[in-house]
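Figure 2 data, in text form.
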Amino acid sequence: MDTVKKKTYFVDIDGTIFKYREFDTYLDTPAVAIKSTKQFLQQVRDEGHMIILTTARPDTKMMRGQTQYELIVNNIPYDRLIMGIERGPRYLINDLSPKEPGDRAICYNLVRDEGI
C-alpha cells in the first residue's frame, strides 16, 4: 500500500502572508492578510501538510506575542514559528532520494504583497 508522504512548507510572513510593514509599525498598524496566501495555507493544512512560518521579526517576547496574536486573529494555520532569521536570501538544502525520483527542495519567489 502506497502512503502519501506529507510535505513541509516554509513560508515567510511579511510580504507573503501579511502585507509588508516596517518593524517599527507592527504595534500601530493592523496585519492585513493576503487572501490568496491564506487560502493556500488553509488548503495545505486541510491536506495534512506541515506549515513552518519564518520571519526576520526579532525574537523578543513582545514581538513573538504580537506575531502570534496577528496569526490567530487572521486565522492563519501553522505548526511552527521560527523568528529572528536573517533578512538576506534564504537557502533550503535537502538530499535527493535514490528510490524516489524528483526534487526534494522546491523554491518559489513571490512578488511582495501579491500572494500566491
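Caption note: The radius of gyration is 15 Å.
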